[in-house]
Structure formats: structure tokens, C-alpha cells
Design a protein that fits this description.
This protein is an all-beta fold and 144 residues long. It has no helices and 14 strands. It has a four-stranded antiparallel sheet with strand order 1-2-3-4, with no helix packed on it. Strands 5-6-7-8 form a four-stranded antiparallel sheet, with no helix packed on it. A four-stranded antiparallel sheet has the order 9-10-11-12, with no helix packed on it.
């Protein structure tokens, strides 16, 4: 399949695969499952995935953030700026969700909403990957 974006090995042994235009795929026990926008994904273009400690899968797509609870997609928290689009996601040691966006702003989930973190942002530079290291430092990979 063309347009693969990211791979995420899950705690349950399955492999999640994001695509640009073909939805979200899961490989489990030798079988593929595919979810698309009409299945609640929000968009067939999925940019990022991260799994939290409870096994919930968080994803960023052109349709916004979504959370997979093992049986259904739930609409995720909204961004303070409605025009933001997440390209990358990370979880820190405390389980806080972080998002890097197309416009270079880093957001953190707080009080049910994604709030900008200006001191971690690089306005105008797409943040295509985020990572929180063991000491808890947030790292970002930017594309120009």
C-alpha cells in the first residue's frame, strides 16, 4: 500500500498503521482491519498516533483529534485555535497529551482542551514529530 505515514506497535501486540488518504489500519493476528472517515475516524488522512497507559489510541487527522477506546472512535479535545491541525502527538510521563501542529504551535491537553504552549512553539514551522524523553524533556522535529 502506498502513502503509509507512521507505524505504532501497540501493547496488545497489534500494529497500527496511519496512511495519507487510506484511513487507519490495524494488523492483529495476521489480519488487517481498516477504518475510514465514515467509521468515525474524522478523515482518511491520519498523521499521528500514540497509545496511552490505559491502552487508548490517540490519533491526529485532518478531521481533528480522535480517541479509540477499543471499540469506537470518540471525538477528541478541540484546539483553542480552531484552525490548528496536529501533525504529531506525544505523551509525557504524567500521561499528558501533546500535539505539534502544521503551523508550528505546540499544544498541551489541559482541562479538556488543547491549549497552546508558546515557549515550546516554532510558529510557521510544521512540527512533524514529538518525543518526550525519559527525563521528561519534550523534543520536536520540524520540517521546512
Amino acid at each position: 500500500m502506498r502513502n503509509l505515514r507512521r507505524l505504532l506497535p501497540a501493547r496488545d501486540g497489534s500494529l497500527w498503521i496511519t496512511t495519507a488518504g487510506h484511513g487507519l489500519l490495524r494488523l492483529s493476528q495476521g489480519r488487517f482491519q481498516v477504518w475510514k472517515a465514515e467509521d468515525g475516524l474524522g478523515s482518511d488522512h491520519v498523521d499521528a498516533l500514540v497509545e496511552d497507559a490505559a491502552g487508548n489510541l490517540w490519533m491526529a487527522s485532518q478531521g481533528g483529534l480522535r480517541r479509540w477506546d477499543g471499540s469506537a472512535f470518540q471525538k477528541g479535545p478541540a484546539f483553542a485555535d480552531k484552525n490548528s491541525r496536529a501533525l504529531s502527538l506525544a505523551l509525557d510521563r504524567d500521561g499528558t497529551l501533546w500535539a505539534g501542529t502544521l503551523n508550528g504551535v505546540v499544544y498541551r491537553l489541559r482541562d479538556g482542551m488543547m491549549h497552546p504552549v508558546p515557549e515550546a512553539s516554532l510558529p510557521g514551522t510544521p512540527i512533524s514529530a514529538l518525543l518526550v524523553d525519559r527525563p521528561g524533556t519534550l523534543w520536536g522535529w520540524c520540517t521546512t
